[in-house]
Amino acid sequence: MKVYAVGVGPGSPKYVTEVVKDIIQKCDVIIGYKYTLKTIEDLIRGKEIYEITMNDQEESYQKILPELGNRTLVIPFTGDVNFSESEVVDRLIEIFGEVEIIPGISSIQVAASKAKVPLDKSKVITMHVTTPIEDKKLELQKALIDGFSVVLVPRPWPKQPEKHFMPSEIAIYLREHNFVTENMKVHVFEAITTENETSFVGMVKDLEGKEFSDLSVMIFDQVSLDSYMNYRWQWEN
How far apart are CA 84 and CA 23, in angstroms? Predict the structure, then answer.
């Protein structure tokens, strides 16, 4: 038995890496969410496929475990396995034991590139978790106060509005915590890399009352150019 957790990129098949394509094409069984399977539909024809939801994923994993034998199982994740997916990966390890993790291209990387915001000078925060996010909210405040750009994945939770923390709620939260949101530049990308991709560029205040899909990434842009010409002392005597 061999089990892989692989990242298949933000949504476009063009962003699936060659190593992930090779693993998928050689595997026997695929278990994944509808959106994720759509990204790799051309690679999984003829495979044994289980389409899951959050509600029935445990049942599917437990069903396939005694049936897998010496076959290879792939669980694809949208984006990168190592970002916003730790709770699922931890459960897969509990169930299957050894799970090989193959990274993918994350929507946060693509969004940062489109906004021209360098990740090495930014704070990356995900609210897309089931655990409490109060500490993450404070982390967001501190990062913005300290002058960092922030790459943020919001939290969609429409069935429990009190847990919903999407761009509109984030804008209101920041305003209520004394941030001057009309002066804060922000990008919001939806369904990035796909034919349904949309983008918003404006000020944080403008997000109040706006609705975005659960496939959203926010970039708080506090970038100032700092090229190597500011560090000429490194090569000039």
Answer: 22
How do 29-33 and 72-77 pair as beta strands? parallel
Q: How far apart are CA 3 and CA 74, in angstroms?
A: 6
Over residues 93-136, the pLDDT tens digits come to 999 999 999 999 999 999 999 999 999 999 999 998 888 999 99
Does this model's pTM top 0.70? My answer is yes
How far, in Å, CA of 138 to CA of 136, rounded?
Answer: 5
Instruction: Give alpha helix (H) positions in 13-106.
Output: 18-26, 34-39, 57-64, 86-96
Of 67, 72, 69, 53, give the one whose Cα is nearest residue 3. Answer: 72
Cβ neighbours for 75, distance < 8 A, ≥ 6 positions apart: 3, 4, 5, 6, 30, 31, 32, 92
Give the phi and the psi of residue 195 in degrees, each rounded to 5.
-70, -15
* Amino acid symbol at 165: F
The tokens describing 34, both together, are 């509808």
Supply φ then ψ for residue 7, to 5 degrees: -90, 130
Give, rounded to a whole angstrom, the gap between the first and last alpha carbons of the chain. Answer: 61
